[in-house]
Automatic annotation (TrEMBL):
Family affiliation: Belongs to the CobB/CobQ family. CobQ subfamily.
Keywords for this protein: Cobalamin biosynthesis, Glutamine amidotransferase
Molecular function terms, GO-annotated: ABC-type vitamin B12 transporter activity; catalytic activity
Residue ranges constituting the CobQ/CobB/MinD/ParA nucleotide binding domain according to the UniProt record: 5-234
Annotated GO biological process: cobalamin biosynthetic process
Name of the protein in its database record: Cobyric acid synthase
Amino acid sequence: MAGLLIAGTTSDAGKSTVTAGLCRAFARRGVRVAPFKAQNMSNNSMVVRAADGTLGEIGRAQWIQARAARAIPEPAMNPVLLKPGSDIGTHAVVMGQPAGTVSSANWRADRAPWAAIAHEAFDDLSGRYDVVIAEGAGSPTEINLRDSDYVNMGLAQHASLPTVVVGDIDRGGVFAALYGTLALLDAADQALVTGFIINKFRGDASLLAPGLDSLEQLTRRRVYGVLPWHPQVWLDSEDTLDVPAASADAETATRRVAVIRLPRISNFTDVDALRLEPGLDVHFASSPAGLADADLVVIPGSRATVADLAWLRQRGLDRAIVRHADDGGAVLGICGGYQMLGALISDPAGVESPTQQVAGLGLLDVRTQFGADKTLSLCHGTALDAPVEGYEIHHGRVDVSDGEPFPGGVRQGRVIGTLWHGLFESDAFRAAFLRDVLGARPSDVSFADARERRLDLLADLVEKYLPVDDLLQLARDGAPDGLRAVPPARS
């Protein structure tokens, strides 16, 4: 099996970014490369089609990594996807399909069967691709979970994967984090860790040289390189840690879009395309003050619609949204946000919430009922005289009583609801929406081209600052023999 495990000192250290960059760099060399993440915890997901035509759901990060690899995204690239619905309960998706709920109290027992499924998916990809680049989850030194791990060193041991650890220098303490990550592993796991990458460095890299030399001497492992922080590096994120505060050109914007930052927000990348429009300030808001000067308020998707609706009410955001609409402002609800805009939400089976029935915001004449069956679809249509595409991921069935048809939903004046994610990635539709709803002049930005340019930029940085050919050879040859354990190794 040819492959690498890209591990990290923490969540959001840069594992997804490095994996995507290497996928594109390897693909440029004519290598058939696939991304993989055995278990992802994210509410940002994408609908993909399996080889047999079945639709499934994977983490958005693995979808964009597949695009970087110029491969077709499929469920095997993210065999286990966990979607947090509360602090103690998580919805599971296995090989693209719903697989019940996992509780924190039964964490080990609930996830035990998934190790074999995940490793089988990795082996399947390995048989069809030249190289598989696996992204770890969190940190490989979550030693309280090592006995049941199949995502980090458990996967590395299964497939004898050489492992590279990424550390984010922006967080501070990167040398301690890298050394500590290695030192807390047992000797067998340390034998697969071949070296390190430092991510998001700002300034003169020569200032790091003494620290890099010391780290290599202490660990007898290579620092493969230092990736700089770059303002234009952007990927479809899996983690709300990456939710941006505001658009870069906020001060010169002529229209303002406020996106409600729900606690259990899902598919927040739905507004990424809007962020590319030079005349828009797209910012995330969690209080009524954040909506004060907005032209458009967006209520995004939610993994726990009823709970997030209660959060809106606790903060007074429900009243602020209704006032905004009453004053003639535009409101867009996407998926769970659409359901919140309706008259009533029912969940008699407790699919998302123990609350069986709750009143919505009453801005749209629709009613939602949750059921056990999940809808997954890839959608195509026409709206505002423009072609539009999207995808659906939801348990709620929405019944519409009144309003003008809109893709995946309904429109009543300047209040719009849709079950379709990804609408704004359709350039012609986005332009028509901005003209019709906001009276704004759209740009000629192509979102697909912008995404490709960002992937190529990332690959260019990886090519410049990392030894790509050495890492490709490492993936093919495996970890070298004789990598010594460093104290205080666990035994």
